[in-house]
Design goal:
The protein is an alpha/beta fold. Helix content is 41%, strand content 23%. It has one domain (2-102, 150-171): Maf protein (Alpha-Beta Complex). Helix 1 crosses helix 6.
Length: 173
């Protein structure tokens, strides 16, 4: 089985590997830079889903894989609060789709102000955490939880949930 991950980010790649190994003994994983065709910091659930789906569809087609996987971090506004979450879309060669979202955390207003100025959340976290390239490490999740949770953790869970339609095929026609 060949799976194509639409990202070169090691956090996302490791999340996919961890999740797939829970259900499959053997697979070939390839990673590639896949365009999301959405903004660098999606600010709605719809835009975040679109970005993840675009990455998944590009990846499966480009690699002629059995599964294409797109992972996208973004924000969603609920009751005047901005939540950070991750979306995972998995497509198979037959066109079936699994989609899931990670746990979500409310972003502090100081982060939101910077994002609205056009900064990517990873850059905002880097400046607060005195780090470089935090999005390829623990990410905002790690910073906000004092390293109790990591970005990879949230994406691993979301990949598992996105796999449900492929694992429980009889329930998802």
């Amino acid at each position: 089985m060949k799976i194509a991950v639409g990202s070169k980010n090691p956090v996302k790649i490791n999340a996919v590997k961890t999740a797939f190994y829970k259900f499959f003994n053997e697979f070939e994983l390839v990673s590639l830079s896949a365009p999301s065709n959405v903004s660098d910091m999606p600010m709605s659930l719809e835009e975040t889903i679109k970005g993840a789906r675009n990455r998944a569809l590009y990846s499966i087609k480009k690699e002629n894989a059995d599964f294409g996987i797109g992972l996208e971090g973004g924000c969603e506004e609920i009751n005047d609060k901005i939540f950070l979450e991750g979306i995972v879309v998995i497509v198979d060669k037959n066109g079936k789709e699994g989609i899931a979202k990670s746990s979500a955390v409310i972003l502090p207003e100081i982060f939101i102000k910077e994002i609205k100025k056009g900064k990517e959340l990873g850059d905002v976290i880097d400046s607060f955490a005195n780090e470089n390239n935090s999005k390829q490490k623990g990410g905002a999740v790690s910073f906000l939880t004092n390293n109790v949770l990591k970005r990879e953790d949230e994406f691993t869970d979301a990949v598992i949930f996105a796999l449900v339609p492929f694992i429980k095929k009889e329930l998802y026609n």
